[in-house]
Specification:
About 5% of the residues lie in helices and about 40% in strands. With about 150 residues, the chain is mainly beta. It has a domain at about 45-140. The relative contact order is 0.18.
Length: about 150
């Protein structure tokens, strides 16, 4: 949900809106002291290319690498609460999501330790069947949303 209580702009000769620095508030309907705009129609879009490569070697070794190239966009995760930039133009808030990660690479490996795997008895139950594994994850950072106290 997004809300807006007041907004100030001037329409330029080319039709674009310009927000001044005077701080004056313009009422949408001057018959009301204040109004509140609520919009429950938010947009979200996620696209990704995902790849994975797995290779199992002999002697208990397995390696896997995966990569995701993605883009997440919306008009509701900007981290500014319920603020709306322009209630008459809801798509003005549409942009990269606050959770967007463009590149994500992951590499892991598992090695089954062969020591005591073929033994029997107590040694097999205590020391057999162990695995060693590792994981490496690399990803780009999240977008930075600059929030100022003025327009």
């Amino acid at each position: 949900m997004k809300t807006a209580t007041s907004f100030t702009w001037t329409v330029l000769p080319d039709g674009r809106r310009f927000w001044g620095t005077s701080g004056a508030q313009v009422r949408v309907n001057p018959n009301f002291a204040s109004t509140e705009y609520r919009n429950f129609d938010l947009q979200s879009n996620y696209n990704a290319l995902q790849t994975r490569l797995t290779k199992r070697f002999g002697a208990g070794l397995q390696l896997q690498a995966s990569y995701t190239f993605a883009k997440a966009m919306d008009d509701g995760s900007e981290g500014q609460g319920d603020a709306v930039m322009d209630p008459t133009n809801p798509m003005a808030d549409y942009g990269l999501s606050s959770y967007n990660v463009n590149h994500n690479f992951s590499f892991n490996g598992i090695y089954a330790v062969p020591a005591f795997a073929n033994s029997s008895g107590v040694l097999h139950h205590l020391l057999g069947g162990w695995q060693v594994s590792g994981l490496l994850t690399l990803q780009t950072g999240l977008p930075l949303n600059v929030v100022e106290g003025f327009n």
